[in-house]
């Protein structure tokens, strides 16, 4: 599963959200097909609805709880794909480029780059059926880097433990034995774009830049206080806390033999799969329970038995859900989530800069 994060980078997050909206997602790439089929399966896993979240949903959404992985498809499957229920969605991969020209066949196309040893790193491209290019938000970028850092720390902790065991040292002396919440670094995540990331990440909007500049000016350049960045960091720490507990990824204390390269690789894959699956399922649960709470509060304010025609979603609500308040794609995601999972319409407020109660941008 680490290959999924490495291959898609920050684009994994908008791709995950598209799968959560049960879009018809078609990956177009070159052989080997097995690699692309693995991506299809893993996307279907991380976009599944965890059991705790189903309690906030109505029974008529049962058919949506898991998106359908179709794995490898071709030209011969066009008729079958066209007849499938659009509401439940699917994820598939193909090496037939002609399927990418069938715009009515899919909602989101994932154009996987062809491997070229020694060339500059290339990221996938995510055009929709109507030609819009989907990019990751600025918050997706920070979240991607934080996940990378957490996985790296878990590997370092495991390797440190393995070195200690191999040298005959005591675990209690050198090996960290704390949950991941304790080894998660407190350092801020940089917004600087690296390695072609500008091609797949939305640029900082003028409104966001103006807001941040105004906030800095209003606080006289002070970095003290409870900022949006602090809230964002706390949110991510809660998602990553104890994912998994470090003892679960360290060597068996009774096993004093060093693992083979194959065993180490397998353990790393299992560890990464555990972290990423749990992380995305927690994120999904947070999305759904947050929306359910907003819907219930809105209906409670109306007469008994009367539903609110349109649910108001504030910028603070969007931020609390772990989304980017400056991203129109994230706002549209909230609208579609409410429509798909709760059969309700949403009016999502857009963040802006206000002075003396007047919106200036």
TrEMBL record:
InterPro entries membership: DUF4484, LCHN/Anr2, Lipid_Metab_Assoc_Protein
GO cellular component: lipid droplet
Annotated Pfam families: DENND11, DUF4484
Record field: transmembrane: none
All residue ranges annotated as the DUF4484 domain in the record: 201-307
Superkingdom as given in the UniProt entry: Eukaryota
Protein name as it appears in the record: DUF4484 domain-containing protein
């Amino acid at each position: 599963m680490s290959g999924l994060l490495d291959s898609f980078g920050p684009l994994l997050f908008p791709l995950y959200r598209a799968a959560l909206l049960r879009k018809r997602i078609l990956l177009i790439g070159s052989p080997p097909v097995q690699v692309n089929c693995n991506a299809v399966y893993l996307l279907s896993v991380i976009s599944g609805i965890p059991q705790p979240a189903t309690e906030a949903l109505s029974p008529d959404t049962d058919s949506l709880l898991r998106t359908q992985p179709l794995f490898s498809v071709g030209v011969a499957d066009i008729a079958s794909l066209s007849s499938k229920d659009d509401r439940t969605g699917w994820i598939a991969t193909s090496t037939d480029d002609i399927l990418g020209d069938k715009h009515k066949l899919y909602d989101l196309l994932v154009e996987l780059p062809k491997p070229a040893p020694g060339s500059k790193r290339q990221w996938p491209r995510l055009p929709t059926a109507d030609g819009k290019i989907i990019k990751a938000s600025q918050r997706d970028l920070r979240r991607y880097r934080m996940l990378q850092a957490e996985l790296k720390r878990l590997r370092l902790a495991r390797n440190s433990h393995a070195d200690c065991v191999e040298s005959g040292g005591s675990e209690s002396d050198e090996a960290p034995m704390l949950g991941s919440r304790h080894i998660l670094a407190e350092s801020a995540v940089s917004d600087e774009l690296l390695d072609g990331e500008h091609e797949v990440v939305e640029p900082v909007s003028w409104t966001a830049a103006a807001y941040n500049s105004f906030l800095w000016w209003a606080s006289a350049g002070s970095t003290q206080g409870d900022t949006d960045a602090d809230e964002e960091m706390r949110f991510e720490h809660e998602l990553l806390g104890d994912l998994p507990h470090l003892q679960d990824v360290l060597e068996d204390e009774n096993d004093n033999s060093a693992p083979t390269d194959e065993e180490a690789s397998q353990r790393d894959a299992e560890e990464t799969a555990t972290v990423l699956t749990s992380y995305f399922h927690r994120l999904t649960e947070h999305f759904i329970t947050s929306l359910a709470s907003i819907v219930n509060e809105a209906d409670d304010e109306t007469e008994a038995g009367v539903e609110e025609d349109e649910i108001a979603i504030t910028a603070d609500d969007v931020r609390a859900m772990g989304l980017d308040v400056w991203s129109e794609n994230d706002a549209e995601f909230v609208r579609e989530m409410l429509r798909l999972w709760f059969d309700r319409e949403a009016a999502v407020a857009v963040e802006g800069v206000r002075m003396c109660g007047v919106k200036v941008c």
